[in-house]
């Protein structure tokens, strides 16, 4: 079991800045942007974020969220000039264990990344897709006692990423944070939220499926000490709530947004996924006119689907594909279907020519298939 820790009033993740505490930002232009972040940010081989693409399927135990259901009182909200962060001064912190993590990890702080418009915002991409908002829940390894000490070790931090999809309705679980943003509009401002909240409410309802890889902080100095867990299922955020985030000002007095680092190369790192069934690719040929076309773009992604359901779905797909092939074949030979009575066709006349058509078949319902000559 995790034991209580002594905490200062506000836990802030220290930033290992560039030489001399140089100014940095997320702007691609100028000398402070991500392309100019120094040291391991530039030269590292295990940098974050990444584009999660074709992860390796594995089976990891589920994550255990201790204290996540408890409402955190005295939640402190801070505008640090680069993001909006929150933490709590309660003595016994929420924690996360299991899930293949290299230890027991205690919650330190949460913060957000978002875009100036809703087509971008998240730091991580999933299959090349960006989300309008990404929440990072930062935890440090309990064996190091303080977050400062954890920054010195490769197993020091565990960060859980929660993607947010655009919704027509406000997400009520974000409200305790949203309603206080006006009070921290300017950089370095800090306030205590009027209402506490639990970390569980910030997670999607299903946390069983997630992606896992080893990476870094996404701010200078980009320490390669993070075990990343990106949840497969999403939370929600509305345009109205995103507008409230975008009204916050950064350290230069500009509207804060696009505060995400571009994705970084994998350099051979393994990216795992657990809780999802592998993709099933359906490949089939369909006759279109005079050509036979291979269709390879029908992809199904079964998420925790029972085996019997997969079999039924596969059979259904096979029947549909067979029907398409049959109709395509008929179409390519210009078959038509007419009542035999109108043509006065008898079963003995199959193979003969009637009114410009060759009789190829007569079914039980007295319907002839006629092939145009």
How would you characterize this protein structure?
- The structure is a single chain.
- With 373 residues, the chain is of the alpha+beta class.
- It folds into 2 domains: 19-274, Alpha carbonic anhydrase (Carbonic Anhydrase II), CATH 3.10.200.10; 279-372, no CATH class.
- It is built from 6 helices and 21 strands.
- The protein has helices at 40-43, 147-150, 175-178, 239-246, 307-332, 340-343; strands at 51-52, 56-58, 63-66, 75-79, 84-88, 95-98, 105-114, 125-126, 133-141, 157-167, 190-192, 210-215, 226-231, 235-238, 272-274, 279-288, 291-301, 335-339, 353-354, 357-362, 367-372.
- Strand 4 (75-79) and strand 5 form a beta hairpin.
- The protein is globular, with a radius of gyration of 29 Å.
> What top-tier CATH class of the largest domain fits best?
Alpha Beta
Query: What order do the SSEs take from the amino end to the carboxyl end, as H and E?
Result: HEEEEEEEEEHEHEEEEHEEEHEHEEE
Average pLDDT value? 80
What percentage of amino acids are in beta strands?
25-35%
Fraction of residues in helix: 10-25%
Number of strands: 21
Q: Assign an overall shape.
A: globular
Report the total helices. 6
CATH architecture title of the largest domain: Roll
Low-confidence spans: pLDDT under 50, at least 5 residues? 1-21, 293-308, 329-345, 362-373
CATH superfamily of the largest domain: Alpha carbonic anhydrase
CATH topology of the largest domain: Carbonic Anhydrase II
Which structural class best describes the helix and strand composition? alpha+beta
- Give the biggest sheet: 13 strands, mixed
Structurally, the number of domains stands at: 2
For the termini, the CA-CA separation is: 83 Å
- Using the CA coordinates, give the radius of gyration: 29 Å
